[in-house]
């Protein structure tokens, strides 16, 4: 059956939606309440046999477009379309359906439109309008439930009711159901994961299989290997953003059309293959999943991952989404109408939070996304949620919006609930003195919910714990953590801090006791047994580890879409070559193949090129023509293409990003992960899970200090008294070795008396050590327990 015969417009239903929007706008107490109600009707949705489509279209009002020139466009492939195929050209049938409008909202409804499911592809759709010159323009659906070809292509109508009905964790949700919405509290600890580098497969389905495999092994009481252990011992898994991101600035587009004479259209389709760390969002499409992360092209993969975590043996694992609503990349201007934006910022564009329609749509995007089954939400860059106050002539923080974010009631498998919330908020950043003046408690202190958390001061990107003197320089922040850190995320290894570590100038005062090479120093700095012991056995809050750090894999700024500024970005990242790549790793077959093909056959050749590139970017103020000319004048000549052109520089920048993305995959750690370290870290995490009271702030009987006199080393001591247990922790953070001493005989309040037993030792301290005199060196530590 042809698309024209299969699809029938339901004009009465479309008109009813427009009429309902009129009533809400005319009778609601506020415009925002009206737009909140309307937002629930937007996007493509299935209601029985009818598909409904709603769009916020102020741009049609701006252009004075009459109703007769606005249509819902439905597209259906004439032949088989395989979402797992890299490249294909498919003819599509197309039909235009009438719409109903009221002011800035446009609606359509139809029967016969095919909805996508796990097992089948749905029809694609967009809103289109015709101008006075008979030129056609397309309005994409920002609330789409499925975007197989990214946020800049027509959406797929998707059956979200069926996705929810087929969930494999319905028993988990049923167990949380009550008369009032269930409220999630904090987990004991968190594993932060970047999906494309977390497994060899690099997809959500691949990560799901990893957790399902671990589940089966635990149920079968089978042994775990070191690569298993880096995923275990966590109460929660936090994903770096999984929303659609930017696309290639200069193409190719993933959806390219060629109209045919019979009214149909031939579409050249490319499976999305961009690489991104997740934070370069365009806001449009935030309710669904980045197709790059989908092995099957089906959004169900995200619900499957939630189920694998919720069904984990012994104790369910929480799933935490990382959402980015504090900015849009400039590409968002091509996906959304200009009413969404509040002006440019350092990331791209501010959003118009005070526009009631924008405010409601952003919250609805969040609601739909979290309904995939997240137990918690981490809000990226909460300090960036600002609005322009014309009276004060300044930007002000929209704390009311942050409150609204954490007040949304979600519904999964029939269970109403409110997720646990974490905010990253470093205000007054980017004020120059922000590291000194930020309290990291701005959201906590103005929020009514006791379970709202923020990232703590040692978790932010500027922390570099392998610079000598770091720990005593942060002593004032540590004291804040001890007395007010119960609602902070703690730990020094995450996607921001590890990236910042790779950008440190090697000429600074580096703690060379951490390793013999820069790679060893960096890896141990962010997977440091003493730091982890401090975080898990002494500090309040909720510890978080980054998978790439605990696997001692590589990491950096990953984004291969740039054309205009790609060379500049790579020039800024070039210093990471000194920290993360040695001659051997560069020479390994499969590593840096693209750069080798471009003429950089050895690391030394690439290093030399990277010595010149950042300097020339700066002195020429990023004049690519001038940079290429100067590179061609270097003597002896640089390795690479021979004669550098602007296109060559862009190709090298793209090759660096793609090669680094491959190089950062955790699967490469298989052969060199340290079993003693992974076992220690797992034991440490399990210890914190067995002692959740350690999350609380230090009480009047607790003690924390460093050994004095310092004598060239920083050694922290911690005494925590719990309901039934006392815990004494001593960690050597940096500097020279101590003299031989007995930790249990230190003059520390609460330490006197017998009954202490050593329960945790960092690698390098043998199991035979129970108590008594010991010499502690950099990164060593002990945990004693009594009671």
Q: Please state the second-level CATH architecture of the domain at 3-165.
A: Sandwich
The share of residues in extended strands comes to: 15-25%
The N- and C-terminal alpha carbons lie at a distance of 75 Å
What is the total tally of β strands? 32
Structure annotation, total helices: 28
Would you identify the CATH H-level superfamily of the domain at 3-165?
Answer: Immunoglobulins
Radius of gyration from the alpha-carbon trace, in angstroms:
28 Å
Model regions low in confidence, pLDDT < 50 over at least 5 residues: none
CATH class of the domain at 3-165: Mainly Beta
Instruction: Label the overall shape.
Output: globular
Might you state the CATH topology name of the domain at 3-165?
Immunoglobulin-like
Structural class: alpha/beta
Main beta sheet strand tally, sense and closure: 8 strands, parallel, barrel
Please bin the fraction of helical residues. 25-40%
Q: What is the topology, as strand order, of the major beta sheet?
A: 12-13-16-19-24-25-26-27
Overall mean pLDDT stands at 97
